[in-house]
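re: ur question from the group chat, yeah i did fold both. here u go
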Amino acid sequence: MGGRPVAVTYCPLCNASIVFDRIHEGQVLSFGTTGLLRNSDLIMYDRQTESWWQQFTGEAIAGQFACRTLVMLPSNVISFGEFRKKNPQSKVLVPANPALRPYGKNPYVAYDSRAEPYALFQGRLPDAIDPMARVIVVPRQPLAVAVSLTLLRERGQLSVDGVDMTWSEGVASALDRDRIAEGREVGAVSIVDSATRQPLAHHVTFAFVAFAFHPELPILTEAGLLKLKPRPEPKR
């Protein structure tokens, strides 16, 4: 995009849409998916070294690049209608044969209205918050920021620790109805640095995912700032 090699990734089980710079330590990497999961998040591999990379964090968890981290690039999930309205002359990448894959169809019907993630997730669930509640995570250094989407949707705009957040309508959930276009409204999120006004990389993910990867990160919700703990283990 604009001369920069990028990897545009999406993990439906985490609802994590993340764009990475494919230039890493002087190499241009190309990525595929291993088919494996960790914390219900997809694990990628690069074809150059076959290192394994955690999609949610961009960190290599095995191989030559273990413990290295890809650079996340700012991106936004918006509706195609909004994109077309703002960019009427833009080109759109589509499959050469659309019949080969049913794009627009959701294989995880009603996933984001479940009480818990699928049993594929083996970690501890957070207390004090719905595990499937959408949470905005801004993984900046040295201090990450997490805010519930419901709070931002109610307020419209928020400023938290030097991060400005804006919610706007027009995006359907990709994990609700059988046809994505018919999914319930979840809206679009825009995140910028309060001082520089530059866009910031962020995730709109589920609370159980934020807790799995950032267990010490408090989440700002309608009930205030929540410092999450694991749910008590069920009695046997």
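okk and heres the other one u asked abt
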Amino acid sequence: MRHIILKSKKKVFGNLTGRNLSAFKGNGIDFREIREYIYGEDAKKIDWKISAKFQKPFVKEFNEEKELNIIICLLSSGTLHFGSTKLKTELIEEIVALLGFSAVKFDNKVSLIIYEQKSIVHTKPTKTQKGVISIVDKVHNYDFLGKKYDFDFINYLNKFRKSIVFIISDFYKYPKITLKHETYLIWIRDKFEENPIPFGEIDLIDPVSLKEIHTTLNTSSVKNFTQILKEKDNEFIKYLKKEKIPFVKIYTNEDPFYKLTELLK
């Protein structure tokens, strides 16, 4: 984990500063009140619809909200405990570190939710590098085996005030994402999952049910599996594009920094 922390901090705070995650730079505004226009003010501030109603000029006042609230939501599943190059969970640690350090760099709050069907880990929002390290440590020490998520995480997330939300999973099952938040989806996969090699007869352990499985991975079964997975993934991609939900797929053999930069620029 130390290596992940140091590498992520270097990328966020080091020589690549100019290419940091731009979604964290914007300021929000919070409506405060409507008041009468004061002579000499910028006429662009006048709300003409309200002014027409009252037959005199009015302006809307806003509080500038510089601090953004960032929520990283990791959907827990035993399938994340896999990797041919490195574990998907290791890639997730790096992604969480990059998002966390980028958030606090711009003086924003960041928190982590690890959502599992039977229990939920939710850290307190932090604006410090020490807090981000603690968040990454939560992911590092979390046991994903035997875990699964349900789609009630949507209702759980919608309880919070409007935020920037990153949902991380390998999405072997996916929900209809009806969130009030500004939402980004980070899709984690390993190349071997999408293009497995025929091994013949093999004993496996289901990472979700933890049951032993004896199966045969021959050319025919592998071809059938990859075809079904491709169709499901394409269906998900079609849905995300229709709903205009930004997403990126990151493989375990890739550098997540550049993929995240492209997602958020």
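fwiw on the second one: Residues 2-10+68-264 form a domain with the Rossmann fold fold (CATH 3.40.50). The chain has two domains: 2-10+68-264, 28-65. idk if thats what u expected
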